[in-house]
What does this fold into?
Amino acid sequence: MEEENGIFFLNPDDTKIYTDILIPEKMLGGAKNGEKVFAEIVSWSDPRKAPEGKIIKILGKPGENNTEMLAIALEKGFAEKLPDEVEREAEKIKQAGIKKEDLAGRRDFRNTLTFTIDPSDAKDFDDAISFRILPSLDKEGVGGGNSKNHHPAQKGTPPTLGGELYEIGIHIADVSHYVKIGSELDKEAEKRGTSVYLVDRTIPMLPEALSNNLCSLVPNEDRLTMSAVFTIDQNAKVNSAWFGCTVIHSQKRFTYEEAEVSIKNTSAPLHRELDILNKLAKQFTKERFANGAISLDQEEVKFVLDENGVPTKVIKKERGDSNRLIEEFMLLANKKVAELMSAPTPQSKESGVGVLTKSVGNKNILVYRIHDIPSKEKMSDLALFLRSLGHKVTLKNGIIPSYEINKILKDLEGKPGKDTVHRAVIRSMQKAIYSTKNLGHYGLAFEYYTHFTSPIRRYPDIIVHRMLMDFLGGKKSGNAKERYETYERLSMKLSDREKKATEAERASIKYKQVEYMSSRVGSEFEGVISGVSEWGIFVEEIDTKSEGMVRVRDMSDDFYIFNEKHLELVGQKKKKIYKLGDKVKIKLKGVDLEKKTIDYVLR
It folds into this structure.
């Protein structure tokens, strides 16, 4: 906030707002000149004049870590503090703990080997895996079923004769058991839609009394879960599946790094179990890509911060077999829940689920996670771009076959241009969203897919848990058409909240990259050209992935013209060409923390 001649005004961080905001003295809320604040526009009757605003929250001194992180979150609609009534409600539930009646009807996995694998700094453990080797296929499915809230075993491909058979349970925190429809907890969780993971903090969707405590699948504690339990043979064929309410007792908490050691080291804890799971996961991955899945994983960075939140080091995140193992089994659970609730198959009386039909009135409703096929226009642009880099691609019905994209990305592994190509591929794709209208998941090559495995941090997963419980209990409440429309509106809202959370997370990373580079002005680096425009070239520094611009006006060795067709800058005298994916040497010219921009010059 600034003051000039007794008049207070704000210069918004959001560049979309083209005017200052006047703050009447009575609307200052105790804010002082030079402080960073969060405000809302209360009056803007004349577009030719500046709007009037009101200070909602004083954030602090500009440039301080806490101030900037809060500003990023609030700009995207995420308040750090949960309402008092929500915290009180959660604390009351936590104090009550798990009662005897909570265990009624739940399948008991407390004596089955169960563990979690999560990042070293994680506190909210959504998912756990149980594992045991079966002596033979149980004729009644996965150990039968002693719960009224379950789905009986579904038969599939018989196991390989003489081969091992495994019972693998994917156990997910039963958040919907505690977060009841219409409660203050539920209203706030729906409003937020998701937890937000900034560089230095998590802004949780649920209070810590639940997210880090009663719902978190911590080791050596009983926890209530919703589970998908599979019998899987050594060829990664799912022979039967069971879904329902469970109780678990995790015996081990692995970090990804610890699990990585156990996979590779025969003397490490649970080596055999993790080795088997890893081999199965690799087969699931192979099958997905054989069916047309696309590699969309991007390299990411994380920051080492000092006590004031200032970045002292930037590290590339490593993705090992342990990360992929968890990912594949979560994908399996999400896919199988979606398939269960989508297939028009008659169910047994034991399940309590009636025959599904294709009529709108009786059709089961589910919030799917969908990823539509790319537009032909964007695919054509991607093909032109890839060809300009020397890659051979074809268009079949207007779409580049996924195996061609995967081959290009694999061939670029370890090369400087991979991230640029990968980014171009992602930009050519549709955005994954939530919807009651199933269009399949193009990127994963799944016909049916939903989000079931992260209810502590995603509200759509809570909805899916409730829908699954209704499905297993044969419950269909209210008018189907009205429910369908309600959930479709909610899906659109939650897709938007997810988008805003992603924007906040990226903005916090960008801020820390700029902040890290601010103490390195004048230093030289290696970078890769990540974008080209008539104004200059965007370069991503290799180690920190800090993107900045080399402006044409600073390229004094020649007069450069932008070739839009080939996305390159061409020197008119020396014919030097700068194009996407080129490796260049750069010098850090300067940074602007307020605008979150970095300027480089070529060396």
Notes: Residues 470 and 476 are 7 Å apart (CA to CA). The chain is about 30% helix and 25% strand. Residues 2-62 form one domain.
